[in-house]
Amino acid sequence: MKRICNLTAVQSRKAFTMLLFAFTAAGAIAGSVYGANHTNIATIWLHQYFIPAPHTSPVLALMKVTFLSSALYLAVAYLSGLFAFGQPIGYLLLIYRGFGMGVSSAVTYARLGIHALPDIMLLLLPRALAVTVLSVLAVRELIRSSGNLLCILTTGDIRDDKRSGLKNYTLRFAVLILLSLLISLADGAVFTVFTRLK
């Protein structure tokens, strides 16, 4: 049972963080393959608003959906971390996030061809990179919290770790929400500059 408790300590290591990025990359690859064969994707649950918005879109509306998409994702991650068996959900969340990025880039390229490169490089890619980092940080916290709960449930070992308390767990997610707001603001600024230069 000690091995279960040790799983949560691994989260601070670079190797584990890279593993989380790898799950996102796997989702992106799967999404790219899917998007290449399904160009008429209208549901937001698949593209997750990563498809670059039309250049005539209101910038405030763009920032709003970007923020709400991240906030919903963070809410699911936060709640999953409150359960002892929430760790698998974290990995699935990363795959799902990557899938949205991959399918969006594939669909955008399929629709616009070579003309899609500016939209992908300047609009989709920066947002995807920022959201990926945000998602990995959220899932890392999810796995730490869920792992601690699983350790208590299976071994009765209550760690004297200030980082594992609910208050600090909630505070870290509050910081992530703030970061998601900053990402949405930056996304709106980039979109505004890009559309004016077109």
Provide a descriptive summary of the structure in words.
This protein is mainly alpha-helical and 198 residues long. The chain has one domain. Helices cover 77% and strands 0% of the residues. The chain is built from 7 helices and no strands. It has helices spanning 2-7, 14-37, 44-47, 59-80, 87-112, 117-155, 166-197. Helix 2 crosses helix 5, helix 4 (59-80) packs parallel to helix 6 (117-155) and helix 6 packs antiparallel against helix 7. The protein starts with a helix and ends with a helix.
Write the layout of secondary structure elements.
Layout lengths: L1 H6 L6 H24 L6 H4 L11 H22 L6 H26 L4 H39 L10 H32 L1
Give the domain tally: 1
State the share of residues found in helices, binned by percent. Answer: over 70%
- The assembly state of the depicted protein chains is single chain
Using the alpha-carbon principal axes, give the shape: elongated
**Alpha-carbon distance between the termini?**
59 Å
Stretches where pLDDT is under 50 for at least 5 consecutive residues are 7-11
| SSE arrangement, N to C | HHHHHHH
Count of beta strands: 0
Taking all Cα atoms into account, the compactness measure Rg is: 18 Å
